[in-house]
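User: tokens in, sequence out, please.
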């Protein structure tokens, strides 16, 4: 078989030159996270508390969960009102 018969049309195989290459584009777009992708545990706990609370005022009952979620989101640079 010849060398051309062994070549593939797929992606370039990893080499020492391209193993350390950055897959994300440079700049702000590569470091910016989406609000839906962070604080998932805190959001789930907050939502579960609000939905399944037996209290007359779930917002008051779940205030600590809401505060944890807001704090987490602020840590990623988001402002929750």
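Assistant: Sequence out:
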């Amino acid at each position: 078989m010849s060398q051309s018969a062994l070549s593939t049309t797929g992606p370039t195989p990893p080499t020492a030159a391209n193993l350390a290459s950055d897959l994300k584009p440079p700049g702000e777009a590569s470091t910016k996270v989406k609000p839906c992708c962070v604080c998932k545990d805190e959001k789930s706990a907050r939502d579960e508390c609000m939905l399944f609370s037996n209290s007359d005022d779930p917002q008051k009952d779940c205030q600590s969960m809401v505060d944890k979620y807001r704090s987490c989101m602020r840590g990623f640079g988001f402002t929750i009102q």
